[in-house]
Amino acid sequence: MIATILLVLAFAGIGLAGVLLFYARKKTEEANSLLNRSIEKWKAVKRDIETERREALLRVKDELYKKRNEFDLELKRDRLELERHQSKINSKYEAIEKKEEQLDELKNELQQKERKMSRMSEMLHVNEEKLKVLYNDLITKLENLAGLSKEQARKELSDTLQAEVQLANQKWIQKVEEEARQVAKEKSINITVTAMQRYTVDQVSQHASSVVRLPDEEMKGRIIGKEGRNIKSLEMATGMEFIIGETPEIITISGFNPIRREIAKRTLEKLIADGRINPTRIEETVAACEKDIDETIEEYGKSTVLELNLQGIHPEIVTLLGKLHFRTSFSQNVLDHCKEVGYFARMIAEELGLDGQIALRAGLLHDIGKAVTAEIEGPHALIGSDIAKRCGEDPIVVNAIAAHHEEVPFTSIYAPIVVIADTISASRPGARRETLTTYIKRLEKLEEIAHSFDGIKKAYALQAGREVRIVVEEDFLDDEKAAILARDIALKIEATMSFPGQIKVNVIREKRAIEYAK
């Protein structure tokens, strides 16, 4: 039993040993197989590494070959550039050497010229000394021949040259002035003619009448009244003088206040139409006419402002504008004149590219002071400017009013525009009537100014004072001095006289030789 068990155990041990040996051999084979695969992989990796090494070596060789070729090309280019620069440098060296040779030649030539100039300078100095001696001898001989000293001769020569220069300068000034005057005349004519053509009036001027016509001679006695009480009541109530002369059916009203004169005229006309003339009725009629006149004044002032489309006019100025309707100057209605000046000033300002409304306002109000000259003493321009300033008008307008008779300086371009417009309105044909006395005085003044200069033989004022013709003494003045005389006379006329338009100064110089054949 035990032997059997031992035998079984022995066979089991032998089987276990065989199994173990089998597994050991199998593991050994697997290990050998794994070792063989590892060796094959290692060989393959070694082959790949060798292949990559060879390829990398080839690539490096190719890169080295390319770099060597590029280096050779760059080296060749640098060598060529260096050779080119070297060639330029050699050329420059050669040019510098040539210039140095030329400079040496020029230096030698200049040295020669300098020596020559030195010799010539010495000769000139010697000749200058000789000329000084000859000049002094010549001056001495000339002084002896002329009988004048050097200073006297120099003074006479200087005076002669000064007179010639002054005459030439005068001619040049006259030419420039004539050209400027012609250009300015053309432009001013265009502007003023354009303004005058754009403005037209239906009537030339309006005349205020202070004469009342009666239906019959019997009315004169009724107006005078018993012991003159009616005429005295009229004069006291109106402040005017009623002149009843020998002229049939006419009564003249005289007084300085145009408003009161209009009231007196209307009162008398109403009394004549009514037929009842007594002191009580006269006072009632005067009061009614005063009220009517006040209303009429306001109407004229407002209609003027509306007609000219002005804004912000003070009520006092509106009233004064209405009063100007009853005021005349040289038979010209002042209100119509003011409106004309406003229109002309606006047109001229617009032609010059300025504010037409400011010019219109200044032109309309320029004679506003005439409305109160019966109550306030002084120049109407300054009175009007004070009124405009008090009523809040623009300083430009105030100055244009004050300066339109040049009693104060101009402070803006609108002031001379108003002066021009005022002149156009006053001097247009038929605007004003000049009295014979004033006309004669103006002509006499022109002739007086002409005779105030030396060398005048005769002077005549022609064409209603628009030309003064002057005959000079031909031996006293030459042609050039006659031209200077004409300019001097024109300047004096401008400085001492006021006149519309222009005055032509015509200086006549002629030499007549008369012989008789016998």
Name the descriptors.
mainly alpha, 8 strands, three-stranded mixed β-sheet, three-stranded antiparallel β-sheet, 518 residues, single chain
Q: Beta-strand level of the residues, as a percent range?
A: 5-15%
Low-confidence stretches: 196-209, 429-433
Spatial strand sequence of the major β-sheet: 1-3-2
Order of helices and strands: HHEHHEEHHHEEHHHHHHEEHE
In short:
The protein has 518 residues and is mainly alpha-helical.
Please tell me about this protein's structure.
The protein is mainly α. It has helices spanning 2-146, 150-198, 218-224, 229-238, 258-274, 279-308, 315-324, 334-351, 356-364, 380-390, 395-402, 414-427, 436-451, 479-496; strands at residues 211-213, 241-243, 250-254, 328-329, 332-333, 456-462, 467-472, 504-508. A three-stranded antiparallel beta sheet has the order 1-3-2, with helices on one face. It has a three-stranded mixed beta sheet with strand order 6-7-8, with helices on one face. α14 links the parallel β7 (467-472) and β8. α2 (150-198) packs across α14 (479-496), α6 (279-308) crosses α7 (315-324) and α10 (380-390) packs antiparallel against α11 (395-402). The chain is flat. The N and C termini lie far apart (221 Å). Residues 196-209 and 429-433 have low confidence and may be disordered.
